[in-house]
Amino acid sequence: MQIFVIILNYLLMMLIGIIDNIKGPVIAPIKIFYHIDYTDIGLLLFIGNLGFIIASFIGGIFVNKYGSKTALMGGLAAIIAGILGYFISTIFPVFITFFFIMNFGLGMLEIGINATAAITFVVNQALMMNLLHFFYGVGATISPNAVGRLVQLKIPWQNIYLIGAFITIMLLIVVLFTKFPGVARYVNKDKANYFEILKNKYVILFSIMLGFYIASEVGIGSWAVTYLKGAYGMSSIRSSLYLSLFFATFTIGRLFGGFIVEKIGYIRCIYIFAFMALASVAGSMINQDLAFLLSIAGLFYSIIYPTTIALAMKKFKENTGVVISVIVTISSSINMLANFIIGKLSDLFGVFIGFSFVVIFMALVIIMLKTLSISYSKRYTE
User: Is 159 in the same domain as 199?
Assistant: First the structure.
């Protein structure tokens, strides 16, 4: 039973990768369907991120009170409800509401997965967690290419999401009849002074750095297909393939990058990978022939998030869970605003300028890392 629950956890994480990365290739059909501009798309992504953040913020409390199985079921049900709501969303504000519900479900599902992992990954935890993120990457690799092909075949975007809903329904049935071992505790019940945490300069530095990283990574996932089609006139299939390959190299990096990090050091590794990520994306924007560099960039994006979280965990020995929760919440809020900015700039100056901020955000990651390393003690820089 323990092995079955672990496998189920991996499949649920793969589902998040699939559902979360449908949006990139279907932005253009959604834009046409509702007669909206890129600013409205930015607002849509803003609201979706808000739903995910709210779920992440309250999800731990929910798990503590009702258990991880209930959180998983609630998350899956919200995803299904959100997607089914797309079929009655004849106007954009209604669609935004259901998009919020779907993303709330994704956030709740991830909290439930992490809580379940805490009680099932009892041996080789580092390896098991890396595999968990690997399966997200598998879903994220499959989704854009498959969706791009469906878009090219003129399949309505609502029907594409409906395929995701069918998969979600099947997994909901499995979760419903699965017995979960133990009691998952996601939130540390020790009291923590949130005001003191927010006053800590390292919390702010980590939050800003991680926020710009997430903005850059999510910016690629959300806007790459729109950028490649708008700037170079690529087909849905080809542009979506580039995005799928980005997540493929991203997944490979997540699987093997940990060995490199441990060998050359946390901060040094983030520096190297962030510079290479910046160079790859910037290089891909020189001309269409170099667009393949965008796919290679996934390899360099891969280790930055988990390594930054690991670095924060090394720094904060007390109330670690609460501190990480604060950092993730703040950084997710930065990402929420950043993707709205990309949409607005795409309307004002074109998709090339809007997408170029993915590079700027990564440059800000490097600047914040430099600031962090200067103020860090030598103990944590080696």
Answer: no
Which DSSP string corresponds to 286-309? S-GGGTHHHHHHHHHHTTHHHHHH
First to last CA, the chain: 42
Range of the domain at 95: 1-187
40 and 118 together in one domain: yes
Half-sphere exposure of 90 (CA within 13 A, CB side): 1
The residues, any chain, with a CB within 8 Å of residue 236's CB and separated by 6 or more, are 25, 28, 148, 149, 151, 152, 225, 229
Q: How far apart are CA 51 and CA 333, in angstroms?
A: 11
Tokens of 125: 């935890």
Prediction pTM value: 0.83
**Residue whose C-alpha is closest to residue 52's, from 125, 101, 11:** 101
- Tell me which of 153, 187, 221 is where a domain ends: 187
Exposure of 228 by Cβ count < 10 A (0-12 exposed, 13-18 middle, 19+ buried)? buried
- Provide the 3-class DSSP secondary structure of residue 301: helix
What are the pLDDT digits (tens) for 2-46? 888 889 999 999 999 999 999 989 999 999 999 999 999 999 999
CA distance 187 to 325: 9
CA distance 18 to 16: 5
Structural domain total, the chain:
2
pLDDT digits (tens, 9 = 90+) for 231-288: 899 998 999 999 999 999 998 988 887 778 878 888 889 999 999 999 999 999 998 9
Confidence of residue 75 (pLDDT cuts 50, 70, 90): very high
pLDDT tens-place string over residues 294-350: 999 999 998 898 888 878 877 777 666 677 778 888 888 899 899 899 999 999 999
Q: What letter does residue 317 receive in the DSSP assignment?
A: -
Q: Which residues, including other chains, have CB under 8 Å from residue 314's CB and lie 6 or more apart?
A: 266, 380
Same domain, 197 and 336: yes
CATH of the domain at 135: 1.20.1250.20
Q: Which of 50, 4, 44 is nearest to 343 (CA)?
A: 44
Q: What percent of the chain has pLDDT over 70?
A: 90
**285: which 2 tokens?**
């924007």
